[in-house]
Amino acid sequence: MNARTTSIEAMRQRHPEIFMPAWRRNRVGIVVFIALAALLVYGLADLGFLHPRVIEGLGKLMSVFGMMLPPDPGTLERAVIYLKALGETLAIAFLGTLLGAALAFPLGFLAARNATVGRVVHFLTRRSLDTLRGVDVLVWALIWINVVGLGPFAGVLALMTSDIGSFGKLFSEAIEAADKRPVEGVLSTGGGALHRVRFGILPEMLPVMAGQVLYFIESNTRSASIIGIVGAGGIGMHLAEQIRVLEFQHVAFIIVLVLIAVAAIDWVSTRLRQALIGTKRVAMA
Amino acid sequence: MLAQGYRDAVRAKRTRAALIGIGVVVCIALSTVSAEVDLGKLFANIDKFTSYIGRLFFLENGQPVWTDPVEWYWGLGRWLSLLGETLLIAYVGTALGAVGGILLAFLAASNLSPHPVVRAVTRRYLEFCRTFPNLVFALIFVIAFGLGPLPGVLAIAIHTMGALGKLFFEVIENIDMKPVEGVVASGAAWPTVVRFGAVPQVLSNFVSYTLLRFEVNVREASVMGFVGAGGIGQDLIESIRKFYYSDVSAILLLIIVTVAVIDFVTERIRHRLIDAGTSA
After folding, report:
1. Which residues of B touch A98 (CB under 8 A)?
2. Has the ipTM of the complex gone over 0.85?
């Protein structure tokens, strides 16, 4: 009888956790949140955000944006130079991605648990790919400049080197996630290791890999547009130079060019990817 | 009949493959000319590449780096503090970008946006923010704010806002709308609807994406110094330019290890979040 007529007070006493305000239930979350916020405030202070020059800088930034309008390359000759550099950028991205994918292809198999030739090889390949990926593409560009000199070729090699790491990892993951049944089928008919790869794994993998390559061409176009900052060709050299000499109308023109190029490549690669993979299957991770 | 149809199908497929092949070859040829590819030069100088990599592992006095770690890491204190600054740049940039991305994502998601015009404007803005590599923003910000970590943080924050904003609004568009309808039915205003209808559903995904982005941003922050925007990149590019080989390998190793550790830790946290999300 008591249970029926208990007041809210009694309920509160019996099940305190239900009556707790929501925020007190998640103490750990609160502590983590406060710590992160404190770190943010410390970071803002330490990195100079609380300095009066921030206000000044914002003013300058506004005037820089003002100077960018309208985007204008100045003369026709400059426009042609920029367009040529843009073409160079696209070429760097395209070749770098393709070479990277081609070289990563065998490494992907060596790095995949189910297709490798030995545990040591598997481990070493993985670590090498991690290292290639861990070094920034600009550093690779600087290293390749020592080898083939300043120019777009160094950019191609730099993108290639860093893409070998990325593709190797993606390919090996795709291979590991592959359906085992075709491989077993090939094995059951007496196929060797190479047959297993060629007829069991490849047919399934190729569209996935091609999709990843197309996707990377787009993101590499962005990378290729800055690689010129260190002298490895493409439009980045002009971009950095025009920013340094404060020709902001030229800068804006270059930025618009890159925006259009990236959008165009995005459109084309999405189309090709859909044609290749078919819209039904979602192959991209 | 059937065999004929099969042959036709195979032939059509082969023709298409051949066309694609020809297209790719033409593109390769054009790019080769444009990018000044010179295989002769590459093969003639390939020993420079291997010898460069080799020299990274030798000290000034000709000894391999591992024989004298103290000499190799002579600047450890300075590099660690620069590495700390790099991490702080990445953290503050990620945090600011994520906060901006969350706010804009709710304006950009088609199921929660307060108005179609707001949605379109927000989406275009997010696109603009993520199209440009960090370094382009950094170059411009260095002009406005002067050298130092500040332009680096802002550049990372803007790019992160664009990249995360897109991922976030895609998450929001996939939520269950029933809780949202419930809050709307009780007469709540838009901020309340978002807070109690949508946020509880998307929070773990948001945190997961933000952690992933943090790792990317640490890499990005490590090269911000190339354009004078703070962090360890300044020392890295200087030692590359001045051919201090052992310094290059020392700094690169520090960066690689740091990124690997962060990669490992964030992946652990993300897996726990995802597990918690599926069991709840």
Report:
1. 24, 28
2. no
